[in-house]
Design a protein that fits this description.
alpha+beta; Peptidase_S8_subtilisin-rel; 4 domains; globular; serine protease; hydrolase
């Protein structure tokens, strides 16, 4: 019988507490068989038939009002116990449900196994993070998965050794979760990853350096806050001066924008895709929607331009790479970042985020240690990463991954060009853009028109939604600007793209800007970061400042001889920034003049700048650098 401990150690070090009366259940799709015997019941009907109560998006939060885990009521009163923000969604999927259970978990697991037969997959416990109230503090560590980091030198025999414990490696997923390898329990209804993790760390320490649980939050970590009021103009695209930018570039087919989200409507007439994408829960094709959020984000970044259809994306000539979360787990996030980097993405747009343990805000639950290596992996391959700061209107924390130093933290601006707050004059008093230290830039985040899943399954019954909001809508505006820059100059590094976006931002709003230590790209403030993005100015700055690789700099003179141009090695990633476009006369004959010269170029072919010293006479020279 599986064990569900009353407390569980999270990878961050936080101690999670079992939440009684709740569980997560997954069932397999309909089991094929003779028509008379085939199990064709849908998931909700199936679970209800064995006494489990699926929790729907419009249901009262667990334990709201009535202490009984079986309490059933309408939507909670705003501000009441367990109140849920508008449009917040329970992290259910086609085959997974968060449920209320009338008995203890081992008994419930046995009931699921006995009564559902071949359709039963696993039953997971629900745990609460300390200090976070309501549904936002609830998570399910998946009971069937262990992420294992092998001891150095033990990679080759790891799978064979762990097979002794009923673990099978999913090699396709291990490719995208490095340095961790992805192992699945053979029978999670008999034993759980919760108990097996401690066993491995004790008994297999010669091959297992670390073992972590894959964690799924109860609430999806998307940062959408829409309402029902229509506002049918694309003011956001106009405000960031994208039309002027389109005179320079509209993006191109080689500049791919990965939308790491709930997948995209692959048949939408206003979206173009670089490939069908992937479902991150299975690592199999394709990136079809598991919700509505991704299609809307994709349209803001890259809806087709000049096609007499619908809306115009910021980088409308660039294709989208659709990456679909299945269960919104930390391991899925890591896999999505690595997949994007390996499949040609120039930019990743992430309109989601979670909070860290102990911060007292939700959603929470992810183990950042699982995701951090994937962020580094993508950045090392010059992928520009953009993520939403969050919609909680707080100045204490920005959501992760926007807080990661290699990620552009995207806040939301209002129609009056200030930070979107609960007091902004737009009628949306239930949310505001987070403004903890570290905001990079802001972009339009209210009343945004964009693409929607077609038909009745979307936010509307049509192909477009005109009220997409939140830092969810701000982030793809910034990602679109990044795609324009990369299409204009493919040699720009991820750091150079970020620098250009920050240095060219408009200093709008009522909060004063000033110089801040360790923020080198101009004046800023916590509310707006460096300001509201401006696509046209970013491209103009890229054109004038020539942030380029060393091997691309050449000096042309009308007369014979050598010239020099002053440069500043301020980027630190193999690029330099030209600080003066003029080329003053240097020495007339380099080859015949004694002295030491500094030569730069990519001498070893690794794409980074190398510095060499050239002497007229044999011997070595040195030059001090800082």
């Amino acid at each position: 019988m599986p064990e569900y401990p009353s407390t569980l150690q999270h990878g961050s070090g936080a101690t999670l507490t079992l939440e009684p009366g709740l569980a997560v259940v997954t069932v397999r799709p309909e089991v094929p068989g003779p028509a008379a015997d085939a199990d064709t019941r849908d998931v909700d009907e199936l679970l209800s038939s064995i006494g489990l109560e699926p929790i729907a998006d419009d249901a009262a939060p667990p334990n709201a009002g009535d202490a009984s885990p079986n309490a059933s009521a309408g939507p909670p009163t705003a501000g009441g116990p367990g109140a849920r923000l508008p449009m917040t969604r329970i992290n259910n999927s086609d085959t997974l449900r968060w449920v209320r259970v009338p008995q203890d978990l081992p008994t419930a697991a046995a009931s699921v196994a006995d009564q559902l037969g071949d359709r039963a997959e696993w039953l997971g416990a629900v745990y609460r993070f300390p200090g976070v109230e309501g549904e936002a503090g609830l998570v399910c560590p998946l009971p069937n998965v262990l992420l294992v980091r092998p001891v150095e030198g033990a990679d080759e025999g790891l799978a064979t050794r762990l097979a002794e414990y009923g673990l099978t490696e999913d090699e396709g997923r291990s490719r995208y979760t490095e340095p961790y390898r992805y192992f699945v329990l053979t029978d999670p209804l008999a034993h759980t990853a919760y108990e097996l993790r401690d066993v491995l760390l004790a008994e297999a320490a010669d091959v297992v350096a670390d073992a972590r649980l894959e964690t799924m939050p109860m609430l999806t970590p998307t940062t959408l806050s829409p309402n029902d009021t229509l506002f049918a103009t694309q003011w956001g695209v106009q405000r960031i001066d994208a039309p002027s930018a389109w005179d320079i570039t509209m993006g191109d087919s080689s500049t791919i924008v990965a939308v790491l989200d709930e997948g995209c409507d692959l048949t939408h007439p206003d979206l173009r895709f670089s490939e069908p994408g992937v479902n991150l829960g299975t690592m199999l094709p394709d990136g079809s929607p598991t919700g509505n959020h991704g299609t809307a984000c994709a349209g803001i970044a890259a809806a087709a331009l000049d096609n007499n259809t619908g809306v115009a994306g910021v980088a409308g000539a660039s294709p989208v790479l659709p990456l679909a979360f299945q269960n919104w787990t930390d391991a899925e996030c890591a896999a999505g970042l690595r997949y994007a980097a390996d499949h040609g993405a120039s930019v990743v747009s992430m309109s989601f985020g979670v909070y860290g343990p102990g911060e007292g805000v939700g959603p929470t639950g992810w183990d950042f240690t699982v995701i951090d290596p994937a962020i580094q992996y993508a950045h090392d391959r010059n992928v520009v990463l953009c993520a939403a700061t969050g919609n909680e209107d707080i100045d204490t924390f920005n959501r992760y991954p926007s807080r990661h130093p290699l990620v552009i933290a995207c806040g939301a601006s209002s129609e009056d060009d200030n930070r979107k707050s609960s007091a902004s004059p737009d009628g949306e008093n239930w949310w505001g853009s987070n403004f903890a230290p570290g905001v990079s830039v802001v972009a339009p985040g209210v009343h945004i028109s964009t693409t929607d899943r077609q038909g009745s399954v979307g936010y509307t019954t049509g192909d477009y939604v005109e009220t997409f909001n939140g830092t969810s809508s701000a982030t793809p505006h910034v990602a679109g600007v990044a795609a324009l820059l990369r299409s204009f100059d493919p040699s720009l590094s991820a750091t150079a793209v970020r620098d250009l976006i920050e240095r060219s931002a408009d200093k709008v709003g009522t909060v004063p800007y000033g110089d801040v230590a360790n923020f080198p790209n101009g004046t800023r403030n916590d509310e707006m970061g460096y300001g509201r993005v401006n696509a046209a100015k970013a491209l103009q700055l890229a054109d004038s400042s020539q942030v380029v690789r060393a091997k691309d700099i050449a000096l042309v003179r009308q007369n014979a001889g050598w010239s020099s141009i002053p440069v500043a090695f301020s980027v630190g990633d193999g690029t330099w920034q030209v600080t003066n476009g003029s080329a003053p006369t240097f020495i007339g004959s380099w080859a015949n003049t004694a002295g030491v010269k500094v030569v730069t170029g990519d001498f070893n072919g690794n794409g980074l700048t190398d510095i060499a010293l050239v002497r007229q006479n044999a011997g070595w020279a040195s030059i001090p650098v800082a």
